[in-house]
Protein 1
Amino acid sequence: MSYTTNEIMTIAAARRLPDGAVCFVGIGLPSTAANLARLTHAPNALLIYESGPIGAKPDVLPLSIGDGELADTADTVVPTPEIFRYWLQGGRVDVGFLGTAQIDRFANLNTTVIGPYDKPKVRLPGAGGAPEIASNAKEVLIIVRQSARTFVPKLDFITSAGHLTGGDARARLKIPGKGPVAVITDLCIMEPDPVTRELTVVSIHAGITPEQIRAATGWPVLFAADVRQTPDPSALELDTLRALQQRTAVAHGTASSSE
Amino acid sequence: MSYTTNEIMTIAAARRLPDGAVCFVGIGLPSTAANLARLTHAPNALLIYESGPIGAKPDVLPLSIGDGELADTADTVVPTPEIFRYWLQGGRVDVGFLGTAQIDRFANLNTTVIGPYDKPKVRLPGAGGAPEIASNAKEVLIIVRQSARTFVPKLDFITSAGHLTGGDARARLKIPGKGPVAVITDLCIMEPDPVTRELTVVSIHAGITPEQIRAATGWPVLFAADVRQTPDPSALELDTLRALQQRTAVAHGTASSSE
Amino acid sequence: MTEITSLREAVAHLVKDGDCVALEGFTHLIPSAAGHEIIRQARKDLYLVRMTPDLIYDQLIGSGCASRLRFSWGGNPGVGSLHRLRDAVERQWPQPLALEEHGHADMANAYVAGAANLPFSVLRGYQGSDLPTYNHNIRFMRCPFTDEELAVSPAIRPDVTVIHAQKADRRGNVLLWGILGVQKEAAMAAKRVIVTVEEIVDKLDAPPNACILPSAVVTAVCHEPGGAFPSYAHGYYVRDNRFYIAWDDIARDRDVFTAWVQRHIRDTADFQEFRQVLAQSKGAQA
Amino acid sequence: MTEITSLREAVAHLVKDGDCVALEGFTHLIPSAAGHEIIRQARKDLYLVRMTPDLIYDQLIGSGCASRLRFSWGGNPGVGSLHRLRDAVERQWPQPLALEEHGHADMANAYVAGAANLPFSVLRGYQGSDLPTYNHNIRFMRCPFTDEELAVSPAIRPDVTVIHAQKADRRGNVLLWGILGVQKEAAMAAKRVIVTVEEIVDKLDAPPNACILPSAVVTAVCHEPGGAFPSYAHGYYVRDNRFYIAWDDIARDRDVFTAWVQRHIRDTADFQEFRQVLAQSKGAQA
């Protein structure tokens, strides 16, 4: 069964969400991955959206963070401050799923500006919920398409803390959550080295070469000694993802949202 | 039409609640007075109870601060933190109605202990919502039966700030609300002097002598130069109060609560 | 994930000697059955927290379960004193009780701060009050932007919060309605949460934006119909005002109280049996 | 007490040049009609506040109504950039726009603090982020009890908050349901509150503990059915995803945008006429 790099990215990300986990879901790729997990191996994952739905079980992917579908299928809908205060800051979120515009070798994220803050070359949308998801979720999964424009040696702006300057930099600041535990791209999966916290390729998607990964990374990227090949999607994973995207396209009259 | 001193106390207190005012209501005498006001001259008063009901319109007086009747007749019922944070501290309460165990000449209130705090002679119930009602309501009405045991020269404990040491003591602490504007008892009405803030008898209920008031006050009590006689209850006031208490007695199988 | 279990098991596994325990319910939905079970299991040295320690804490304190109390109003609502609380404070019987006394606004704020995983709460209040003189956990700070003085208080983070609610579904999602008090915040602030409920149902059928505690927050759900007596459960039964009045006589005297607790709580297997014994004592009196 | 009035009058009397204005609605119930009316009445120099400045603020900013923006995420959800916001920030067109940039958690907290009449809010966050370097209103303090470092931010206290809701009754009590975002907090934090509604009814018939803004909090209620378009009103109409996509082309070019605003907003009398004109332009394109 053939599949696209976007599909393996979403499926590989979905696999990282444990069943029963409380997951803080961003719109776009994270929402696709979290819902795929819920529809396959993690039926008891509790999906929380920052607009207020807790336990959302959307039948079609939301196009916005506050689609009515999320409210209609949730266990409950609370005001946004409760999501951030009682759930995220409250330490009740197991997994935060984030996207990003730029990422560095320590999985710090920039969604604010390209260029100087006061004279930006590109003004990006900004932080959203990311800085506090990055701080307070017990662990963070990052899902992002890989390219040298996105995987940069130095961020113009750190919006959300990954492992900062590496090593125990994050622990020294007493940030509550563990931070990024994996970066899942359309080429590979990276994890922070247990000691230096530098992102290291641990799994390569089928058909991708290390050279392609190097070319798509703005720094000399490390590979684990025992780098694996990402298991191919199962028929269930692929069918479920495609059916979800098909239902979504029909419902919205458009392809699924891309952030 | 004859009436009791308790009746004129409740009626005189009710008269002080302006129509349309947002009123933070304590249980017992304050609740009786506030509901009497609502049923007579102040149909648009918005009664708020600390347990959560906003716009309660009880047909019978609640025996507890959280009777179901309050929830059933309210415009909405919010969690208790919202009452204290968004309404009281939010500066949205026009009138706070308080009772007390002891009061001094500057209308400071003690509901905590008689005797030393660490070795109390009598342990009273404590603060409840009073300290912050006394601070944050735009103005405070105190309703309490008058006796030398209650109106004392010096409080064993200041639970809730009235005018503290008098003069501009309260303003110097930047307390948001104006503090007590009247003390309504079964004998008379006292108001703080505009300058010294010492409680001054401004109105005496019919049939009560200044001597009775002096005997029931633990300090040499001041009388206004133009002290008035409290107007007798109107038939409407008295009938409404008695009907309310009658309904309450029937519903609860008991007399109306006394705090 | 929530366990649906008996109240006896829930208290046995989740409430330990020395724990900080909040049993909340503002007049409505007071978790009386759970309070009894804690007495029945003879927990010791509890740090009790509750805005309005009423009959339920009078019973726990008089039974020797508590050594410390954080509260804001300790009375029998509409009736008068809590005699067991007063006896503990005034005469250290059956043991001393350390008081940490706040105002309602502060307690409500401190639960909100606890639910939000903040170490302290901020409020406008206490100016001119003697409470901060006797409670050194009430302090003042200055606003980092305006320099205004504001009161601060430590967040409440119970080891266990116990509440009573109308309904739970079989996954452990809990629905309550009517007067909500601080129950949601007290639950969200706690490490472990026990909820006794009137009913366990297949589907909550809750209206939009109802007050629901998701199963992820609830450690144990226990089916205890009537478990809020003598308080009430909106939509199920009303407050038993006569019991509040009767409590004044029961609690006034140490021996009467002790005998009452023995017969009604320690010698009964559960809250259902307590209700039966209580009905018999009432019958005997009549 | 609430006035029930036209949106034109409400904006004329309650929104002044230079005001701090929050139009809130988290994807759901966005008060678009009110945003248009502010453009129609050519307000200037507004200090806009909103967690997610989307199309409604792109329109206000591009129309020259705003000089300052406090926000946390400025994009066209599911589509991409807000071109008018970017043009103002990147090239100062039509005028410079000062940014005060926070995270969502901080903004939500700051509304809660504003509603509670506190001057600042406290949160766990921003450690390691560059945001505090560029926004000097994000500071850090130490807990007076635990000495932990926590972030603080000024409370949001709008002069005017504008929201859209499903229903109001004739006394001005407002009911909303579904995704609530920060609307209640934004309203409680404001000096004046304008609510546009789908319906004005005799009786709200709200379920227990529904999200209601009591009339005492609401300055003006305006009947604006469809007033959340292209956002949605749960129970009334769905989100017009196509308009969000179409907006990308309208807003990308200054001249196209300006002509669009002239024809659809400035030259129309109200939101109903805007909807008619929009239907005509769509017809012309088809």
Protein 2
Amino acid sequence: MPEVAVRELTLGEAVREALAEEMRRDPRVCLIGEDVAEAGTPFKVLSGLVEEFGKSRVIDTPISEAGFTGVAVGAAMTGLRPVVDIMFGDFVTLTMDQMVNQAAKVHYMSGGAWKVPMVMRATLGASRRSAAQHSQSLHAWFSHIPGLKVVLPSTPYDAKGLMKTAIRDENPVIFFEDKMMFKFKGPVPTEEYTIPFGVADIKREGDDITIVATSSMVQVALGAANMLEEIGISAEVVDPRTTWPLDEKTLIESAKKTSRAIVVDEGYERYGVTAEIASVIATGAFYDLDAPVKRIGAMHVPVPFSPHLEDATIPSEQQVFEAARAMCKRT
Amino acid sequence: MPEVAVRELTLGEAVREALAEEMRRDPRVCLIGEDVAEAGTPFKVLSGLVEEFGKSRVIDTPISEAGFTGVAVGAAMTGLRPVVDIMFGDFVTLTMDQMVNQAAKVHYMSGGAWKVPMVMRATLGASRRSAAQHSQSLHAWFSHIPGLKVVLPSTPYDAKGLMKTAIRDENPVIFFEDKMMFKFKGPVPTEEYTIPFGVADIKREGDDITIVATSSMVQVALGAANMLEEIGISAEVVDPRTTWPLDEKTLIESAKKTSRAIVVDEGYERYGVTAEIASVIATGAFYDLDAPVKRIGAMHVPVPFSPHLEDATIPSEQQVFEAARAMCKRT
Amino acid sequence: MTTATNQPKSNSGAGSELSTERLLHMYKQMVSIRLFEEQVNDLYTRALMPGLAHLYIGEEAVAVGICEALNRDDYITSTHRGHGHCLAKGAAPDRMFAELLGKEAGYCRGKGGSMHIADPKSGNLGANAIVGGSVGIAAGAAFSAKHLGTKQVAVCFFGEGALGQGLLYEVMNLARLWDLPVIYVCENNMYNEYTHFSETTAGEILARPAAFGIPAESVDGQDVRAIYATAKRIVDQVRSGKGPAFLLCNTYRYKGHHVGDVNREYYRAKTEEQRWMAERDPIKIFTDWITGQKLADQAKLDEIQSRAKVEIDAAAEFAIKADYPGLDEVEEDIYA
Amino acid sequence: MTTATNQPKSNSGAGSELSTERLLHMYKQMVSIRLFEEQVNDLYTRALMPGLAHLYIGEEAVAVGICEALNRDDYITSTHRGHGHCLAKGAAPDRMFAELLGKEAGYCRGKGGSMHIADPKSGNLGANAIVGGSVGIAAGAAFSAKHLGTKQVAVCFFGEGALGQGLLYEVMNLARLWDLPVIYVCENNMYNEYTHFSETTAGEILARPAAFGIPAESVDGQDVRAIYATAKRIVDQVRSGKGPAFLLCNTYRYKGHHVGDVNREYYRAKTEEQRWMAERDPIKIFTDWITGQKLADQAKLDEIQSRAKVEIDAAAEFAIKADYPGLDEVEEDIYA
Ligand SMILES: Cc1ncc(C[n+]2csc(CCOP(=O)(O)OP(=O)(O)O)c2C)c(N)n1
Ligand SMILES: Cc1ncc(C[n+]2csc(CCOP(=O)(O)OP(=O)(O)O)c2C)c(N)n1
Ligand SMILES: [Mg+2]
Ligand SMILES: [Mg+2]
């Protein structure tokens, strides 16, 4: 966190500012996606960029996720640094061949001859009443694939610094933004900064239990930590910020210190991010844990439309609070 | 295993026999894919089926994985029971939208009104010197998605019984066959049988350590178990057979009994199947484990072409043996 | 560049062979769709509807003209802008509203919402929130129909934005190779969300299906009689085993991309909207013809409209009063 | 149904404007590709090559005719059947063989193998083992060239099987909308693995790019002069900023789909193979023309061939003797 928090931006504004700064700094950076220009995306995150950088660098596309992702892969190989925009993270399904069989593997398969410095921005997160095809958090898929890096910012500050790092990275990076957080505010310094990948951030220090949380779940974890404080439990909230590279050391050390850990992530719980992180902690802090690592992910159901059903599928403060309380044996 | 093992079939033959029997039993079953008819797929697993069932039920397609998968989804909704064939599991990348946003969700999104009884056959497994785009084991992706079931047979017997169950299931099922095992032989009874999903099979009983293994890794685990026996370690080998539904109970009970567990799977280790299973065991057998659950998956690299590099990326008997020996503290 | 304006003149003979009763039914269907959508907008502004919805206002003639040419057991697949297709194919407004409000009485027990309404009874395979996501499903239904010899056809509705999706071409190729009884109905309302289709669509739209050997034609999407007549001919042909067909309907959405898209001037001029509403309104065009032909007078049409309004209002009322699903519903229907 | 037989007659004037030196260079390239592939087959049968390879024998005129019309810094993307493209664009046989054998001296340090050879120095963005997988990459390279104003063009080679992949249509649409300097070269060798292309390809192939507004033409894929002349014209046009183009080359693979595909009678007749080899061999057709025009006599051509053979044999020998990468190489190059 910056020394003097002079200024508040929303997460959407922070992402936009990162993109604008990088586009000013480096003429090779361009944005490609559906309704990214005048519309500035349906979430308005990119508003104003086409006015500053013009239509040749902020490029509207047809509804062709696979096609423009493929174009970005080739453009990245040959001198540009494209940022592609996937409106809803659910549509990454259409880009998996280009991202996984092409982007992720080009560098390795060519023995290092070619590289693919591109960023894919995608959204994640439910609770928008958009039902099963517009609410998924599919970041576990990408985290599973060698050759890709996966970023999950949880604050405007992190979003800006991580986006700048993503654009400067020489590899394909998937940058997932929770669409419910675009209006979420936080301090962002005016001076330039970047945040390295693979460095977890302790969002709140504590002694009794570690809550590892990603993306918007960090706020859920912080809310639960406040509730826990009221009953005398001191929770540490750790945000890995990137699922790959993963800062195993910080996660394990925190769990060793507190001897209990919960992992909260909005992807489907089964075979998801919580499994990897829980397993890393269970192994790394094996001799220090007082209880099994608890995983809290999205319920193993397609996200339902009806509001209270949808809400029931997403990890909540209450749920995290209760899990932590039970683990710390307070009632 | 059957009482009297009268007959040996290869895994490929077992799959073919299951398909043929189900096609005879149920005229709604049909096969759709590239080079499935006269060619019987490049692996020859389907040889002879077009001769028996004709071109209207064994259907060659253009190279359109997304397209024919989509057709299968619609056909399954309206009265057929298609089995689609994805030649190399790496090409599932092209079908993710149809499988994940459509097939997996139709039943739920429609409040139960429609269902999608289809099977996708795909291959997995490296070591064929086919490099990074023809060697992946991407079953973790599907296991992550509610609405899908995922099958990983490890023997001809299991392959036949599980394929018959898959075809009769009312849901989309992904059936992964290790392409290096098509010639692998094992006993298959001539009498009809099916194998339920979600029931793990103890492939070898043991007392000192549990080795959970999937697909071809079961043979690796059994090989390691033989090596372990020679140094006095008794290993139990458990095959979950389906990663979803997952027979957590059997896995946990075995680990409780032996107090040590290794999980071996050929998918990339990070955020893969080993993470989920290790985490399930670490939680379920928390108070009984003498050591952290050890995960052995494919190395976190795109699969390289050069033979000894490729071999180094795949879990081996030696590796499992050494991990088990270290865990059991024998030298 | 393809433009929506140079469309062929209406098939002027169409309608004459239809009974007055049938024509008035079509009128009622169009009016009902419009009233339904106005009610949806109202539910949204009154904050009674969770999420968003994509209104079909302005495009009513397409759904009605096509679906009137279908049998009840023929299949359709629909889109995010699907209420019109759904109603035209025979869904009941009350259960639709209930779905839109996330109620248990809805077609999907509240689990699908606006973008996923499905109804086996009326052959509706489901709306789809993935642009182009249902083109394979429609062909698959046609595959079943052909395989089982049922003589059903499948209609795949999609917006011109779906022309950007590769899946469409994969499946058109399959449909032609296998002579599947599927009809691709492209609703060109000139916008992919906030981008004009001319910025996203190279070449001539009709040349695309034609390249795969699929007979393709266009029709004035504001003229329900022309659409019906064309659809009838195409459906007969497809049902008789001639393989797939493609129909381009040139139309316009009056409202925003979704109910929340209110300030639209940055992507299209108000005058453009006004021109379509004044000159090309499908209900007005049909009204003028009906009254011109003296098949019914304005009073009769007003009466139909009033009755439709009563029905739609009652349906919305039903939905508002209906119960939400119980929490245990969340884990039901994951697996069949 | 599109057939490969009704192709236009050879562009008879082609070649006359080329220097003899250039023509003999093209001859040498074609011969080298054939010798290379024969050597590959030999390495396979001698069990010196891990895995499989897809031979380009019979199709040599396409790669050579196209690549001769390109500059060294122009881009290509290639396919699983990529050795010919690679060599024609200027890769060295020794490093190619080394790659095929999984040696460290290979273009990909042994990590890519036959299906992934890539070489920035000759503008080769890489072969691709996903059918159609590189159509976006080629357009992306063209996007860079246009964006950076470098005047490079990108050629995307693909087999007619890739016409089944939706990505191609998504990208052709983009390439046309954005006027990208990309040339799609479709090598129709009549088979998608073991299935005749007529069973997988509805309509007319050339109508597909044309539907997206992309100029498309076909050429006799066995006539290197015709291919070169056509390519030269197209490349000039594309380089001048006219946007994408599509060239269909009708050709034939003499051997199996891959080196292990030996018994082929179940999917194609031996007589068909024999007819192509006897009547349509690209090297023979070019030889006859060269000698007919008296640009060189058979002895001269034989000498070229012998020199090529020495080179190819030496290259294979180099690869056989080369070292495998060290085990630590496995974890290198995952990230840049
Ligand atoms: C694959 C996919 N990409 C993007 C979207 C987001 N999206 C929803 S509707 C829409 C525009 C669709 O335009 P069109 O197909 O013309 O239908 P219309 O809304 O005009 O009826 C877009 C881009 C989506 N739902 N699916
Ligand atoms: C997406 C995808 N599907 C299937 C395959 C398996 N496969 C490899 S080559 C091939 C046939 C390709 O035919 P074509 O494009 O005509 O090229 P050719 O082999 O004739 O040169 C197939 C189906 C693949 N590599 N990629
Ligand atoms: Mg539209
Ligand atoms: Mg071919």
